[in-house]
Amino acid sequence: MQALLDGISRNAFVILGRAGMDMFADPAGVKSEDAETFNADLGGSSANIAAGLCKLGASAALVTSVSDDAVGRFCVNKLKHYGVDTQYVRAVTGEFRTSLAIYESRLENFQNVIYRNGAADFQVTTDDMDRVDLTPFGALVTAGTVFAAEPSRAATFHAFERAKAAGVPIIFDIDYRPYSWPSAEVAADVLSRAGAASDMIVGNDEEFGFMAGDMAKGMQKAKWLSENGVAIVIYKMGEKGAVTFAGGKEIHTGIYPVTAVKPNGAGDSFMSGLLAGIADGRDLRTAILRGSACASIVVSKPGCAPAMPNRNELDQFLADHPTPTEV
Predict the structure, then answer these.
(1) Angle at the Cα of 145 from the Cα atoms of 135 and 215, rounded to 5 degrees
(2) Which of 44, 121, 148, 228 could form a disulfide with 19 if both were Cys (CB 3.0 to 4.6 A apart)?
(3) What's the rounded Cα separation, in Å, for the pair 175 and 120?
(4) 257 CB neighbour count, 10 Å cutoff
C-alpha cells in the first residue's frame, strides 16, 4: 500500500477516459422539456475527476479522443479553463462524436439524457497510450467506461501494462454505465479483469454487486479484492457512507448531509477529493471524508465540473460541517 500512497503523494495524475459536454436546464427545478435556457460546461467522468483535482491544487493530464468539431473544441477549451493538461487529447474525424449529457437540477423525476452513439472517446488507441510520457505522473486514474468498447478497451489494458512496468499505481473507478456495454456478461468479465489489475478500486454497492454476479455479494467482492492484491478498496453506500478495506482493516465513514439539487457528479468529486486529500499528506480516513465532503458540495449545486470545490471552498465547507453522519 505504501507504493500507492507514495505515488498519489506526488500529486500528479494521468487520467484515462471521456470528456463531454454537459447541458443543464436553468433555472434549478425546471424539467429539460420545459426549459428555455440551458447552461453548458464540461462533463464526462474522467474529465470531471481531472477538473476536480486541478481545482484542489493537483496537476492532471487527460488522455482521450474528442470529435474534430465545435463540441470537441468546446471540451478542450473547458479542460484548459480548469487547468487540465490536454496534450494527450486527440481530435478524431469522421462520424465519431463527443458525448453530450442533458440533465436537470432537480431530484424528483430527475432526467439525464446521454448521447453516446459513435462516441469519440472509444477511439483511443494503443498508439495514443504509447505517446504518453508516464515520467511526470505519480498515479494513473481511469473510469470503467473506457473498457466498454474497442479500441479503447485494449488501449487501456495496454496503458495498465505500461503503468505497471513503470511502477505507476493504478486507480480504478468502476463507473459502470450499462448503456455503453454490449452485454452485462462482457461488462462483468472486463471490469473484473480491470479491478484485479488495480492498486485502488472505488465503486458503489451496486457496482461491486454487479462485478460479483450477485447484488447481495458486493461487500463480499470488495473484501475479497482487498485480500487479493488490491491495496485500497472503497465500497460506497450512498447516504449510508462508505466502508474502506485497506491494510487488513476496515474504515467506516459517514457523509455530510446537504440539500441536494441533483444526484449526479458526486462520484467524480469524491474521487478528486480523496486523491487530493491523500496527496496533501492526510491519513486515509480524513482523505475519504474530504472526498465525501466534495461529493456533498457537488450535489448541492447545478453542473458537475463547475460545482466542484477549490481548496478554500472545501475547507470552508468542512468548517461549517465539522461532523459527518455516522454509518
Answers:
(1) 120
(2) 44
(3) 18
(4) 11
Report the number of distinct structural domains present in the chain.
1
Using alpha carbons, select from 67, 50, 68, 70 the residue that is nearest to residue 58. Answer: 50
Range of the domain at 92: 2-320
Does the residue 68 lie in any domain?
Answer: yes
Cell of 109: 423525476
Based on the number of CB atoms within 10 Å of its own CB, is 216 exposed (0-12), middle (13-18) or buried (19 or more)? exposed
For residue 42, being part of any structural domain is answered with yes
- CATH code for the domain of 195: 3.40.1190.20
The grid coordinates of residue 200 equal 485502488
Mean pLDDT per 10-residue section of the chain, whose length is 327 residues: 97 98 97 98 98 98 98 98 98 97 97 96 98 98 97 98 98 93 92 95 94 90 96 95 96 96 96 98 97 98 98 97 83
**Full-prediction pTM beyond 0.90?**
yes
